[in-house]
Amino acid sequence: LTLSLCTATYLLFVGGVARLIGALAREDFLPRILAASNREGAPVGAIVALTAVHLAVALAASWGAVTVETLVALADGFFIANATIGIAAAYKLFPGLLPRLATLLLGLFFVVIFCHSHILVILFVLTMAAATFAGKRMVGATEGTG
Predict the structure, then answer these.
(1) In angstroms, rounded to a whole number, what is the distance separating the alpha carbons of residues 135 and 141?
(2) In this structure, are residues 83 and 110 in contact, taking their beta carbons and an 8 Å threshold?
(3) Residue 41 main-chain phi, psi, to 5 deg
(4) Does 97 fall in a domain?
(5) What is the pLDDT of residue 111?
(6) Residue 123 belongs to a domain
(7) Residue 37 has pLDDT above 60, yes or no
């Protein structure tokens, strides 16, 4: 039962990520080749790319270039960062004081957990956040001059 649940979770996660990659590629945020799909609309380009990445990681782990513990630590850090972003979105969307206070406390708790993540995850997330905010500031500045 456990193996079935883990396999189903993995397939659902990879399928969701593949569809996200395909959508981003169609909107030119990622290389167009990743937008390739079959007749049924399955994101073949993204699935092939994800398969290549997963095979590379599996080979790196089997050759000892990276440990399974490091891979799990990296994945945990990214999951915590993603959950924290979701909590921040909930804070912005919730109308009442009590739900916002609850999301604020939960968000602070997740930030504390995130601070214990692998250093590479922390650096990557902070870099992406800085790039995102810098991009928004630049877009806002150019829109104001038109």
Answers:
(1) 10
(2) yes
(3) 90, 5
(4) no
(5) 94
(6) no
(7) yes
Total structural domains within the chain: 1
The DSSP output letter for 42 is: -
**Angle between the N-to-C axes of helices 2-26 and 44-62, in degrees from 0 to 180, rounded to the nearest 10:** 130
Q: What DSSP letter does each residue of 8-38 carry, written as one string? A: HHHHHHHHHHHHHHHHHHHTTSS-GGGG---
* Helices first, then strands: H and E counts in the chain: 5, 0
Res 48: pLDDT: 95
User: What is 115-141 written as a DSSP string?
Assistant: TTS-HHHHHHHHHHHHHHHHHHHHHHH
CA gap 76, 79 in Å, rounded:
5
Residue 32 lies in a domain: yes
